[in-house]
């Protein structure tokens, strides 16, 4: 007869075996992990032929490309070897249930000089073309940005054949002026001068993309610049649009494409011309002085370098750009990150529970240039808002400190946070009374761009909405003296940045945070604070978990 200690030992052994089996099942079912180890430094760069101080990641400018597949876990260890705090944010990556990892100051403590932080991201239910960038101070004007590719899982059909190659093109305006000098200009209350150049993958000219005659290639184009809309075109070649910020689109062919600040597009091109080199041209839009940069599309059997005139593009034609934007629509029958068709979610049949009207403005506050949304010019708190919310620290921000619609108040400073209910379905109208093209981004979400037009939005404007196949994306443009309307399902709990992508305006207050709140407090709705969370401000000295 077995004694009691032996019975206990066998029972414990069996229990441990069950735990091990469950653990193995869990690991086997878990999504893949990809690991990145990055060191951020200052270094000498020469994009315009003269030495500048740039921000390098692992010695690279632009930074390394992130290659991933839907649902991958990305473990990105970032060591900050700059002389000041640093953060990276992930433009278009939705951070499902996990705004702690968003990498903007409202959610995440900066990485102190000489220290590191490991981001844990999951590209949950996402595909498409995105980018990362430094979100603090005016670091974005010094580099530190790079491309993000999220491919579909192997069993999910993609609505076009596999291309022969997949190239990322990071385009953007560029200053020869040091980023700290630019920041000082803004801190003193002045406006910035116009940028001096446009870069394509860190160079104004000479970047080469090699193709084989007769084959088709995918180009992922992201505007990582600071303020300018850019027009993209390729000499002698048409471009078939296939994806916009994670949405497969109706495959419309364009001769050139407007890419506004913060936006990303995927196009297919076929090397179906005579074997030579062709210009890839990128130029500013809606500017008095047109700045143009070029790269080379090089046929592998080419015997002739680029020559002749650079192909021209549109310059100040607003209506042309508006009509192109309206032509970009969702491919309803194509699969997205999941096998079900993108059109299976009928956003146009859902009742809107709230309308939010956001009006941008520019004015002087205390004799310094500021920018605002609904009269509120955002000022950062001494503690990231998400941490203050988690630890219930009072006096950092107040929910409701920005109204749902414009007020007649003069511009004023505040740490503006808008409250919103989890699972609400909202209509947001961006109203632009100014003479510039604006670009707006919402972290944590994609939204349907249901309408845009000139003039002032009214309830009757809803008669123009596209309620069937509007494109879903995370960054939208608003044309001068015009409006843009979006629908958004608030299905992602967290503290989310709503900002102008015109970076000087963002820095001087044209942003706020949307607190999407669930009273349940379940991990089904939001992950707990990361164990490795950096704690700063009034959260310093507390325990994460």
Keywords:
545 residues; mainly beta; Immunoglobulin-like; 7-stranded mixed beta sheet; 6-stranded mixed beta sheet; 34 strands; Cu-oxidase_C; copper ion binding; glycoprotein
Q: What does this protein structure show overall?
A:
This protein is mostly beta strands and 545 residues long. It is built from five helices and 34 strands. It folds into three domains: 28-156, Immunoglobulin-like, CATH 2.60.40; 157-336, Immunoglobulin-like (Sandwich), CATH 2.60.40.420; 348-539, Sandwich (Immunoglobulin-like). The chain has helices at 4-29, 179-187, 318-327, 385-390, 503-507, and strands at residues 33-45, 52-57, 66-69, 73-80, 88-91, 116-122, 128-134, 146-151, 165-174, 197-200, 208-211, 216-223, 230-234, 239-244, 247-248, 253-254, 256-259, 264-270, 277-284, 292-299, 354-365, 368-373, 376-378, 398-399, 412-414, 416-421, 425-432, 438-442, 447-454, 472-473, 475-478, 482-489, 494-500, 511-517. Strands 9, 10, 12, 14, 15, 16 and 18 form a seven-stranded mixed sheet that branches. The two termini are 47 Å apart.
